[in-house]
Every structure is written in structure tokens, then in C-alpha cells.
Amino acid sequence: MTQQRPKISVMVLMGGYTSEFDISLKSGTVVCTELDTEKYDVYPCVITKNQWYYKENESVKHNVDPGSLAININGKLIHPDVVFNTIHGSPGEDGYIAALCELINIPQTSTHFYAAALSFNKRDCLSVLKAHGIPCAESIYCDLGHPSQFKEVAEKLGLPFFVKPNRSGSSYGVSKVNTEEAYQKALETAFAEDHQILIERALSGVEISVGAYSYQGKPIILTPTEIVSENDFFDLSAKYEGKAREITPARIEKETLREVQKLVHKIYTILEMSGACRADFIVENGQPYFIELNSTPGLSAESLIPQQAKYSGLSLTDFFDRLIQEALYKQKTT
Fold first, then answer.
1. Contact 165, 193 (CB under 8 A)
2. CATH number for region 139-201
3. What is the topology classification, in CATH, of domain 8-117?
4. How does pLDDT run across 179-188, given as a tens digit for each residue?
5. Whole-model pTM?
6. Is the dihedral of CA 107, 41, 295, 170 positive or negative?
7. Cα separation, 193 vs 190, whole angstroms
């Protein structure tokens, strides 16, 4: 009689401390639904500023120890074999969860803490990648105490331009500016999310997004998706309220497609990324310009990575399985 192999316990972390809390819950729920329950015992765990807990069902919650990630179920402690990180924003996308997992020696599906922290900080990520020859739009950085004047920004970047929180995702706090009056409102909106902001030239062209992940220690670059927003840009409502067309594969020249995939491979390698990430670009006059990198990309039904995984021939169950197996593989080989 063949002995059945024990299941791997997977803690799916979701929630977090930022405006992306509800979006993260959607991603985490999709992961929990799609994971192969014949291979994995799945524990959906929600992180809030006040409590970390395992949600057994709608009415039953069990505390999770933030120091060890042990789940306390009526006095019995469950220790996860692997963490599936679906937290957008802090503390999942900025490196804190990755650092915690490394300290307590639990493999996790997202990238290592330094790459996560670096990519979450738009200013620092752009500075590093520009030094390696990655094309990026012209930008200005400022903080709450020293906001740049409209005239200075308009002279350097031209009109229109974007005002963005330096450390935020899902287009929270992002505004497109054409006038001085709009600029003042944009500053207020961005500073509500972060005391640091990035002001960036508005590129004119085709917006594309490219997923990547590591498998058996090697980067896999997915097929780009073209984004056609009904709004002025790919803002929050366009992303999550169906006000954009997302076309996979992107309708760009083959040479441009190869170039952008080459750039994503270079970025993934430069930053020594692991796990799944998503890089966003604007193709202006045939040149792809890097915009930002998401180290914990959305995995909800509306998200881009699931579409690209499906186009590559992977079901979500298979894709999520690859991410977990890669996390376990990475722990054994490092």
C-alpha cells in the first residue's frame, strides 16, 4: 500500500495596512480558491493593523502570531510550510513580510526583502534602473515639506504630467495634471497616500504591462498585455470597474514586443527578483519606457497576471503551484 504524502500547509497572507486592503483580499481569495487542495492545506490569513488572524469561515477567526506566523487553533499551533504573499502595499509589497519570513526561515512566494523594498519606492527603483540603461520618463521627486512649484515642473517636464505617491499601488493618489489649479489638488491627493511624491512626464503612446516569474531558478517573461482605458489614464476605476480593455497579446510590433520582454528580463535580473512581478511601460514612438514594477501583483479576476498566465497555457492552479514550488526550491538551493 502506497503511503500518502503529507500535504504542504500554505498560509495565504492578504489584507495589509494601506488603501489596497480590499484589493488584496480579492487576490488572496482567488489564490485560496484555485490552490490544489489535494496537495495543499490552505490557510487564508488576514493582516490588519490591529490583528493578524486565520479566517476559518465567516464567523470563526483564530489568532496568528506576527512573530512566528503560527496559527493558534484552540491551543494547537499550526506552523505554515510556505507563505503565499498577496498583500499589496505595506507590509507585503515593501519587503517587511519577506524579511520576516527570512528571519524565521519560512519560504515565501514573493521576491526577497531588498528587491521588494526597492521596487516599492518608485524614486529609488527608477534611479537604479536608469543607471543600468533602462529607458524611463523624466521625473521630479519632492516631499511634503518641499513640494515643487508648478512653474518649475511645467518648464522641466512640459504639460501634461503625472503626480504620484512615491510608495503606493493600484493608482491610488495618482493624478494627471494640465493646469496649476489641478496641480494643487493633485498634490493633496498624492500626499494623502504618502509624504513623498514623484512627478513624471506624461508619455504619449501605448500602455502595456508585462508579467514575469521565476521557475526552477530562471526568469520566465510572459506575453505583454495592452491596456486601453476609457478614462484619461489607467486609474483606479479603469483597473477595477471594467473601464478599460485589456488585450493579450498587446497589439505592438514584434520587434517592440521582443524589446520590452528583453527589458523586463534585464530588470528582473538586475534587481535579482524572484516570484511573480509585473512591469508597466508606455511605448512612445516605438520606444518602451519603464514606469514601475509591482513585486506583489494583483491576482484577482480583474488582474493582468492571471490573463497572461492563461495565455501562456497555464491555469491559475498550475501557475500558483509553480510559485509555491519555486519558493520551496529556492529555500533548498540557497
1. yes
2. 3.30.1490.20
3. Rossmann fold (3.40.50)
4. 999 999 999 9
5. 0.90
6. negative
7. 5
